[in-house]
Structure formats: C-alpha cells, structure tokens
Backbone:
C-alpha cells in the first residue's frame, strides 16, 4: 500500500512539473529565438572528446563524460565547473545519466571498458561496478517511475536491466539481440518513453529500430520460469521475446539498399533513439543515412518492403501487385483504380497557396531542388489533398537525388495517385522510382500499366528510355539470379555468426515506415551522434554532423531553419535544456558549448552558417564519398568537391535527364 502511495505521489509530481516545464518551453522556444541562437559559453575542463551530456530534471545541472575517463558536473547558468571526478573507467565514457529521485546525487556511467559504474557525487565514491557486458557499453537509459532501475545497451548485443534496490545487486539480460541476429549484432542506443515507462526503444547495427514492452517481456520470463520449475536446464528453444512484445520500424527503402551500402563500407546503424515529450513519436539518427521520425500511433507499412514473390494465377500477387477486376494493388496495399479522378477532388488551389506553388515552380526551374521541396511541403501542409502538390514535390525529389529522395518521391507518387488515379506524371514517376529503388519487376509492371492507361504516351522518348533501362536490368537480374538466391538473409540453421532467426525475419516483415525524414547533416564517422527534440511540443529537430555543424529543422514542415558551427571537427551530442531555449553541445573538441538566443542588438553569431544549402550539399557528397577520402577528411585534409556549396544533385551524382522527359514531363504542374 505504501509503495502504491509513493508511486501515485511520483506520478502527481511529474504531471505538475511537466505542466510547468511545458508552459516555460512554449514561451521560450520560438522561431525567432531559434533563428537567433548563438554561442553563450564554452565550458573548459576535459582533456579528451566529450562523448555524452545530460541535464538533471530541474535543468540547473549539466553532467558530461569524456575520453579522459572523467565525469564533470557543471552549473550551466554561471558557467562554472562544480565537480571533476575520475570515474574509475579505463576507457572512453560514452554515457552518463542521473538516477531519478536521487536528488541528483547518483550518476551512472558506461564506457568502452565494458563496465557500468554507479557514483555518489556527494562523497565522490563509486558505489557499484558492473562487469557483465563483454563489449563496449554505449548508452544508459532511466525512467522516472523506476527510481532504482536503469538499462543499458552494449555492443555485445545485450540490453541489460539493473535494480539497485536488490541486496544482491546485479544485472539481468532483458533483451538478447544475438538470439535473433547472430553474434555480430551490436546494440548502440536505448531509450525509455517519458509517458509510458514500460516502452523501451533500442537501436542497433542495421537499419531496423526496435520497440519493446518491458511488462510483456518480464511476464513472459516469469511464466517460463514457473513452467520450468524443478528442471535443471532451461529450454533454450523458447522464444526470448513473446509475440506482440516487439514492434520494428524501418525507413522503407533501406533494407534493399543495405547490400549496396555494405559493399561501399557504409555502415547503417542507429546511433541514437529518443521519444517525443508526449511519447507518441520516436526520433532516430540513422548512421550512414538521415534522421527519421516514426509516428508510434499510426501504423504505416513501408511502400516497397519485402515484396511478395511472383505468382501467375489470376487475382494473385504478381511481382508485388495484385490484379483483380481491373484494379491493381501494389505491395503496400495502395490501389490504382481506373477512375479518372476521385469525386469532389479539385485541382485548384487558393490564391495564397497558388503563389507558394509558383515560387516552388520557379525554384524548380532554377534547379534549386531543396528550396522547391521546402516550398511544396509548405503548401502541402495547408492543402494535404492536392495531388498536384505531391506530384510536383516528387519531381523535385527525383531531380535532387539525395539519399532516400527516390523513396520519398515514390511515397508522394502513391499519395498523388490515391487522390487522383488519372495523374499521368505521378504514375510514370512511380515506375521510375521503383526502378531507381531496384524493384525492377515492379517497375516493369507499373510501366506496362502506365502504357495501357495512357496509350498516347507509350511511344514517348521518356517511356521508351525507361522501358529499355528496365529490360536491361531485368536481363542482368535474371543472369545473376542463381548468385542472389536467398539475398543477404541467412537463416540460423546455416550456423553463420551473422545469421537471422525465423522470428527476426517475421518481425522485420512487420516493420512500420517513417513519418518524416530530415536531411542535411552527415553521420558516417561516429556511432554516438545524437538527434533530439527541441521545444515543449517538439516543434524542432536538432542533430550533430561530421562537418562540425549542428542542424535545426522544423519538425512538421521538415524545413531547415538554422545551421551553426559547433565543433572544429564533429558535433556528436546535443541536449536541449528541459525548460528553456538553451542547448548544450559537444564533440571532438574537449569542451562543452552552451547556446542561447542572442539579443537583436548584437547581430547574428559568427558561428551561424549562412550557406545552409551549400553545407547540405557538401554533406551529401561526404556521405557518398570513398571511405579513404572520408578518412583523409577526418585527418584534416581538404578534398576537392567536399567542402563547397556548388549547385547540383549532391550525393546522387549528376542529373543527366532531360527536364522535359520527352512527352512525359518531369517539370512540376
């Protein structure tokens, strides 16, 4: 009964504090303040890279951990160092966390020496040392409703749970990814939802992000132990995670891109996961790619993920689409009907949105693809049922060709066709996107359907060119089919260290797609790079970058609003203050930097990057650079073409297509 009252008191206090913080943040994190962010102070003291930052709940203390194996405690508002403590670690510290409800007295650190240490900062003592991991400890997570419990992610593939209340203090394995993915999998990051402390997110090597229900796992383990009582051995064939306790998320284009990235030594790994303040969204910084936002309340299946095998019977799935009674359904469930346009659908926009669209069209004509995408997105926010806007934005994505652009274009084409099945350009672009994403058979089916639906376009130069490209790719695919049997997926019976279990394959097949994607930064060099929400309503997204800058986007429009130079080499850590428009960052430099809005009388901070588009393009080229070039860049060498802001298509290479695409125009409507 007493424990229940304590829990209720904690919940009530959290609600009141959250309301107070929400009021403060809503009045302090505004667009004018974001655009006037500047460097307030540099906190000196560390002698190595600062790999982790953490605010306490009140926001009056900031903790940091470094390669120098020291943990420091700062008074951020007076720019003072309050504590410098050697943690006892013998390698780089990667994570530091305040233990909830300890009056900021207990801090936990995890490091590359595979150890987890629990410290009392008042007595400057290390209370506990945990040595169960067999590889580097990368992230620690805590939860307000679990005041003596914490979790961590290790590169041995394990998520461990610790309870400091138990007399025999030790850790238990909550999740063992090696049971699913083989011995080579590495857990990189972990986070607990602030609204549902039983919801735990895990990022690991590979493009998949995992969401777990801790209660279901514990209940399953307890039932197994009871059923196994009296037996001397535990049945290892029992499923380690019960059905329904895990949900996977993935950017829909990444699974098929994975072999190509591997061949180019470009590692896909989730370097950071965090929940929005209301717990409805999950933000992921995907190493080797972009920043992704997943909506946890809406189950959106990837558009081109794990397409079914080809069948030939009428009404069955054929290369990812089903044909029944003249209606074609692609693998994501979207239907292209033969109707010309949906009832009540209008192609006209209000005058103010027509102006925005025209500005976007003008930017497109000037080959300013990112500006065109931003303007089309702005218009889509106000007119979400305009097929024309989705089709136009798809054309801009296809021209820009940054990583993931063709998949975003495919999603826009599907949305345009859902609103207007007679959208000629969207249908043709859909075939082109499928081809660019290497769904060659699906591209051919889509193109054949396009020819049947729009016979006057069948002889256009663009249509014939795409047809030739697809047939060449199909011939090559058929020629190499024997070499690609099974793809990159290996089942556990093969006995390989990187084999995937059948349970893992099933969970991947049920993965859900992202809501938004944020582009401009580069995350290929370090595996601790963060991305965080900023603002009471998570209005902004912030992320570090390999170019030494950090980027700020509007969450809903995905517009890039600010870029600041935060480090001489790489910005890894960004932790927004819990209440104010105040940001702490760190990276390769042995300092912690604090950022706040500057007075209008002082002008813009000299660290503001004026050419944001140039910075984004340079980062896209950096992400697609040869690994040797990246290594030279990180050693301080300058590589031609990777440090400028020239116009062009960025990482996707030059744009060789004729803008008109024959009769099937790629220009916006």
Residues:
């Amino acid at each position: 009964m007493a424990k229940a009252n304590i829990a209720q008191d904690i919940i009530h206090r959290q609600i009141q504090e959250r309301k107070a913080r929400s009021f403060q943040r809503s009045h302090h994190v505004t667009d004018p303040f974001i655009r006037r962010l500047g460097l307030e102070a540099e906190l000196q003291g560390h002698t190595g890279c600062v790999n982790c930052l953490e605010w306490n709940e009140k926001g009056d203390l900031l903790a940091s951990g470094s390669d120098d194996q020291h943990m420091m405690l700062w008074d951020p508002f007076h720019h003072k160092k309050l504590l410098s403590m050697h943690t006892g670690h013998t390698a780089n510290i990667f994570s530091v966390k305040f233990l909830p409800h300890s009056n900021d007295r207990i801090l936990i650190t995890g490091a590359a020496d595979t150890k987890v240490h629990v410290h009392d900062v008042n007595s400057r003592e290390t209370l506990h040392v945990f040595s169960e991991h067999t590889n580097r400890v990368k992230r620690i997570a805590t939860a307000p409703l679990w005041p003596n419990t914490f979790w961590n992610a290790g590169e041995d593939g394990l998520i461990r749970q610790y309870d400091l209340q138990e007399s025999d203090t030790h850790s238990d394995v909550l999740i063992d990814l090696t049971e699913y993915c083989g011995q080579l999998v590495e857990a990189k990051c972990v986070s607990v939802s602030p609204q549902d402390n039983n919801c735990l997110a895990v990022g690991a090597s590979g493009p998949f992000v995992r969401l777990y229900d801790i209660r279901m796992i514990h209940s399953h383990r307890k039932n197994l132990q009871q059923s196994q009582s009296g037996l001397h051995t535990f049945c290892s064939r029992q499923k380690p995670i019960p059905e329904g306790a895990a949900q996977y998320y993935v950017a829909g284009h990444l699974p098929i891109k994975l072999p190509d990235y591997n061949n180019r030594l470009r590692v896909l790994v989730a370097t950071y996961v965090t929940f929005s303040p209301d717990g409805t969204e999950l933000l992921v910084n995907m190493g080797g790619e972009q920043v992704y936002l997943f909506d946890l309340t809406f189950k959106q299946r990837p558009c081109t993920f794990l397409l079914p095998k080809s069948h030939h019977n009428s009404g069955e799935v054929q290369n990812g689409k089903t044909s029944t009674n003249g209606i074609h359904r692609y693998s994501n469930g979207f239907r292209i009907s033969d109707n010309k346009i949906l009832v009540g659908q209008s192609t006209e926009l209000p005058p103010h949105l027509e102006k925005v669209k025209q500005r976007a069209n003008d930017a497109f004509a000037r080959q300013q693809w990112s500006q065109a995408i931003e303007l089309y997105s702005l218009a889509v926010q106000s007119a979400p049922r305009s097929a024309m806007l989705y089709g136009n934005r798809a054309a801009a994505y296809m021209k820009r060709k940054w990583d993931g652009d063709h998949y975003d274009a495919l999603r826009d084409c599907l949305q345009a066709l859902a609103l207007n099945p007679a959208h000629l350009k969207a249908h043709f672009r859909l075939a082109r996107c499928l081809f660019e994403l290497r769904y060659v058979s699906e591209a051919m089916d889509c193109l054949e359907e396009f020819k049947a639906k729009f016979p006057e376009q069948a002889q256009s130069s663009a249509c014939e060119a795409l047809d030739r490209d697809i047939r060449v790719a199909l011939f090559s695919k058929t020629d190499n089919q024997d070499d690609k049997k099974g793809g990159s997926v290996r089942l556990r019976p093969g006995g390989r260290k990187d084999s995937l279990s059948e349970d893992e394959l099933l969970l991947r097949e049920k993965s859900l797609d992202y809501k938004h994607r944020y582009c401009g930064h580069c995350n290929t060099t370090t595996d601790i790079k963060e991305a965080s929400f900023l603002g009471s309503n998570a209005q902004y997204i912030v992320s570090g970058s390999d170019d030494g800058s950090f980027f700020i986007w509007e969450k809903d429009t995905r517009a890039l609003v600010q870029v600041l130079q935060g480090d001489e080499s790489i910005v890894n850590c960004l932790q927004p203050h819990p209440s104010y428009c105040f940001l702490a960052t760190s990276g390769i430099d042995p300092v912690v930097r604090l950022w706040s809005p500057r007075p209008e009388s002082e002008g813009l901070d000299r660290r503001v990057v004026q050419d944001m588009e140039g910075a984004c393009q340079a980062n896209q080229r950096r992400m697609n650079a040869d690994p040797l070039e990246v290594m030279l860049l990180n050693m301080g060498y300058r590589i031609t073409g990777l440090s400028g802001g020239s116009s062009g298509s960025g990482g996707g290479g030059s744009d060789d297509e004729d803008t008109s695409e024959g009769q099937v125009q790629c220009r916006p409507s």
Summary: The radius of gyration is 26 Å. The mean pLDDT is 84. The longest strand covers residues 37-44.
